[in-house]
Amino acid sequence: MTDASTATPKTNARPPRRQQLDMADQLKQLQAGAGTDAGADAPAQQQQPQQASRPPRQKNTGRGPRAQQPRQQKAQAQQQQPQRTPRKVNPVLERLFELYPQLFGARFVPLKLGVYEELLARHPEDFKAEDLKIAMGQHARSTRYLEAVAAGLARHDLDGNALDPVAPEHVHHAILELHRRRMLRNNGNAEELRPQLVERIAKAVEASGLDREAYAVLVRSRDANANAVVDEALAELAEQAAKREALLRAFEASGRSEQEFADMYGMKLGDVTRTLQRVRDDKKRAEAAAAAAKEAAPEAETAPDKAQPDLPATTGN
Fold it and tell me: pTM of this prediction?
């Protein structure tokens, strides 16, 4: 058994506690310590108020001056960027708007061929030939005018009268030019815009009243990409026509009424009626076109060249 006197003293033994003074003694010490540094001998309870008087540390909320620097730099960069100068309107176009607001106003319409010469004849004192030529070129190249042409609207004279519709080849060229401009705005992403182009050309083919082969001959050009789009649109139209013809054959073979046929296939009666009537009309037009082509065959060698579009070759917005 180890002697208590030789035992190793514990190094982690706590020092004796400082004698705690009651409140009366603390007050006496404070009063007696006047003129001396009382803070050194004051108990911990008296030092805490001094520590608490320090202002609390503010958290970084991201709204301080450092956080505002990127916004200020961005605003300064935007101010330093050159502002786009608004495009000046051709004074000749302004005069045309005053004279013919129904043609050159908020809504554009296709103009009759030869309207340039007619404007010069009507207003020799208002327009110089060269100035009017430049202004009409800007008007014909504008996107708004091309949209009117691509929609297949009728051409109009200076009195606002609707004349013949725009020629199918002119509609086609306007559609291609609008597609080209959309590609430029879309960073040349042709694959994304191609379905829209194919659909629009398909609608133009149907609106033209021409059969698919005649339309293809009319608009065929040296542009292989444009020709490929036309072929794709014609292929889709051919597939749709085949489905309509199959529906007509099924209807004729069923021996049922249109209502009974629609109920049998779960279709709407109106859709069935329109589809069947369209197939019949297509057949009549095809037969008429074949007969006309047969009569015009001897004169094919002396036929005039197809008309060129009235739009300038250069493009712009």
Answer: 0.63
